[in-house]
Design a protein that fits this description.
By secondary structure, the chain is mainly β. The protein has a domain at 38-79 and 94-126: Immunoglobulin-like, CATH 2.60.40.790. The protein is built from 1 helix and 7 strands, in the order H-E-E-E-E-E-E-E. The protein has a 4-stranded antiparallel sheet, with no helix packed on it. A hairpin with a 2-residue loop joins strand 3 and strand 4 (71-78). The chain is elongated and about 55 Å long.
Length: 141
């Protein structure tokens, strides 16, 4: 299954945080400089793949979902509300985001279903019969 994209910041964030704390350097992936990626759960059963995406403080109208070159592309923006209050701590991230998930060959793309409820996006990708193997063995002479 190829639904989870590679995210290089996940691999380097911990390293930069540890080295940065020893050397008193800020992490390039922490704080305001870090881009926001909504948390996603991916699961499957015999008939479908399911994605649950956390999109708190967002409206359905602020979310775009498309299929591009074999990828399910989710994008949007969570805006930070300005206020006159003095803020002491902010651990949440705001701004634009884009998540790309490669769609497996056995998904009925025209039957993908998306529902948004209480800050959660629920995606259902129904499976079809597995496509025939497209690779062939090539003999080396």
């Amino acid at each position: 299954m190829k639904l989870r994209p590679w995210n290089p910041t996940e691999e380097f964030d911990d390293l930069f945080s540890r080295v940065g704390s020893l050397m008193n350097w800020p992490s390039p992936f922490s704080g305001a400089s870090r881009s926001w990626l909504p948390a996603t759960d991916i699961s499957e059963n015999a008939g479908q793949y399911m994605l649950k995406v956390e999109l708190p403080e967002m409206r359905k109208e602020d979310i775009q979902l498309s299929i591009e070159d074999g990828y399910l592309v989710l994008s949007g923006e969570r805006k930070h509300e300005k206020s006159d209050e003095k803020q002491h701590l902010s651990e949440r991230f705001y701004g634009q985001f884009t998540r790309r998930f490669q769609i497996p060959d056995n998904v009925k793309v025209d039957k993908i279903d998306a529902k948004f409820d209480s800050g959660m996006l629920y995606l259902t990708l129904p499976k079809t019969e597995q496509k025939a193997e497209s690779r062939q063995r090539i003999d080396i002479h």
